[in-house]
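Fold this sequence, please.
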Amino acid sequence: MLSGGANASIHLWDLERAETTSRIYTHHPVGSVKKTPSTHQFGLTHLSFYPFDSLAFLSSSYDHTLKVWSTDALVPSASFSLSSVIYSHDISPIASHLLVACATQHPAVRLVDLRSGANTHSLAGHHGAVLSVAWSPRDEHILASAGVDGTVRLWDVRRSVSSLGCLDMEDSVGIVGYDGYGTGARHRERGKAHTGAANGVIWQDDGGHLVTTGHDERIRVWNASTGANTLAAFGPVVKNTHLSALRPLLAPSILTPPGEEIMFFPSEKEILVFELFEGRLLKRLRVPGVPVARTTVGQRNVRNRVTGLAWKAGSVEVYSAHEDGTIRAWMPRTSEDALVEEEEKEDRKEDEEDEGRKRKRKVLEDVYRDLTRQKITFT
């Protein structure tokens, strides 16, 4: 696993290797990037492994650069300056091309070609910074982007006029065309996916649906074929106000029955677990001992805000990054865990009872000792 910080640090972690004490696991980085003139100079915004080979990874930063790294040596092998802040990036896991889509402060999606080294191609259409991008897992040439103008746009990078249109939250029917999949239909160039900035977009792993998030504190699920808003309602518990990419995490579809897909959302100090298509809140994951909300009038305290989520491949584990610099692991609670927790609870109860008896005995001993020390005179 990779992690990056606001101090431009990058750490590499081996999740299979940890120090174990009872039921507590402590991980230590197996490698770290030291700050040099060739590394990032400002905070990291996004890290991702190269999808075809874990011996390389990509990073983007507030220093306006996208870098390609060697995982073994932890040194940059290529660097691309885009002359504006890069909020997030994405590279297709299925494509024959090697295009890295970058969401930047510039009002256009920037495409970096790792094969040729060119970074001049851009997709214009947003009216403001682009905050999040995501390649389709089903079609290697289709890209989705979300921006501060509240729009979520779809692109076909093969076309000279790349825009396929934008998503409209008022449209629950979609553009079906003559074959039900939009073929022959007029593309929609107006409409907003969110009333505030749209700062997250992600595809379902089969490419059938898109999920977007925005500063209107709404999560929307879209039919990817027609662009229709499925009208899934996730309630008022969603918190999303920071101008940075904030993407939800979808559980692999093979782990859930059809129609019961699960989504995790980093909502400030807690992780909300939803049923994807119904919007039903299943669970709220909170860090033990940390209050969820401690606010002053008109201001939120976000010292422990959840800034990102990642899924461990081939497992049922979720990792969360926090603004206090910690990374936490979340695992399912098994029946064995419940038995161990019950035993620990009983042990704590017995210890508390023993402590209570000791305190009472000490009080009695002190009273008896004070009485025996008193001088009594009979007259």
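Helices lie at 335-373. The two ends are 86 Å apart (CA to CA).
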